[in-house]
Write a structure and sequence with these properties.
By secondary structure, the chain is α+β, with helices and mostly antiparallel strands. It contains 11 helices and 20 strands. It has helices spanning about 35-50, 145-150, 160-170, 190-200, 210-220, 220-230, 290-305, 320-335, 345-350, 375-385, 390-395; strands at about 1-10, 15-20, 25-30, 70-80, 80-90, 105-110, 115-120, 125-130, 135, 170-175, 185, 240-250, 250, 255, 265-270, 285, 310-315, 340-345, 360-365, 365-370. The chain has an 8-stranded antiparallel β-sheet. Helix 5 (about 210-220) crosses helix 6 and helix 5 (about 210-220) crosses helix 7 (about 290-305). The relative contact order is 0.14.
Amino acid sequence: MLKHIDIKNFRSCYSTSVGCGESVCGLVGKNGVGKTNVLKCIDWVASSSISTEPIRIAQAGNASQGLDEVAATLVLELGDDRYEYGLTVPFPHARGMGRADSPRDSLTVLDDGERTDVFRRDGETIRVGGRPGPIRVPRSTPSLAALLSLLPEDDALRAPLQAVASFFAGVRYYAFEEPAEFRDSVTEEQYNEWLATFQAGGFPTRSIALRLLYMWLEERDRFDEVGAILGPDGLGLFEQFHILKFESTIDPTSLKEIKSANKTIYLPVFTPSPQMGGAGKPFPLSDLSVGTRRVIGMVTSLLFDGRSLMLMEQPEDSVHPGLLRKLIDLLRSYSDRSQILFTTHSSDVLDILRPEEVLMATAHHGATSVRPLSPDEITRARRFLKDEGSLSDFLEPFD
């Protein structure tokens, strides 16, 4: 679980500190105050730390504003262990100022106030705690990826490195925008091409249809779990859903003739529940409402991706308040599998959250600040909720 992050010079987060120790946290604030920038920074650090590719500094922004470096320090609680990982990267224009032009990062074990370095890297040199002599690494490669590739499988140092790297590999940012390709159907050729990449450690896919097809073919228990969540005993959206398999000479995603005839096509179809429009009739994904597709995307992502930390943009978009409550409760019920940090503008979402799950984002002179409610504010909020009104009403004066 991510417990805390300090951010320096990432977009509007010039000096931003965020505590997010709850399994579900909502970032609340006006448009443009920098909520998304917090999520993007977490995603940037996680992907950069485990990549063997050069760090994509352009994602951090601010390089044209005369700032020297971008940095972030994350505190993670993984099982019984607590770690602090820090990453600092100079902006390209600062490299002529005498700074090293490679990332500086470190991993530290935190134990009852004691700090023990696992490693500390500056330039091309990594110094590993308790070991003589430095380890040389390529200039642009972060230390986690480098050390895991260099150390023997039986090296004791791999355990903390792998724990942190596994957490970072499980971080993902979600905007829930379904790509045009594969929206409704997937050909067998498309599926096999994606599957080879996925099984080799590639990107999971943004396609709902591909996720559902994989679970239907490879992990039927998870496919059935999706059905149970979306079905009558769960969110109540569908009476049933299944995947049609048929042979065709036409690719339904493009309505063009397939070069070799009789290709296998897979099409997920959804039958709305009795209280929904179109009840009893099967519909492909694109014929469903935007809000319904968004909920399906969140549920399939939650079950298929198996992420340690899900960074979500506005789960309330196009979703009815009554369904929202069920959805937030669902996310909480899976918090033992995934920590969830999301942005929101919705008073309906606020009224579902607990006071300790709220993070309030503001901007002053262009700089993003984030804070939780203080212990006194949480106490007063609970009293307000019990005797007077909703959490959104309580927070309105803070806006």
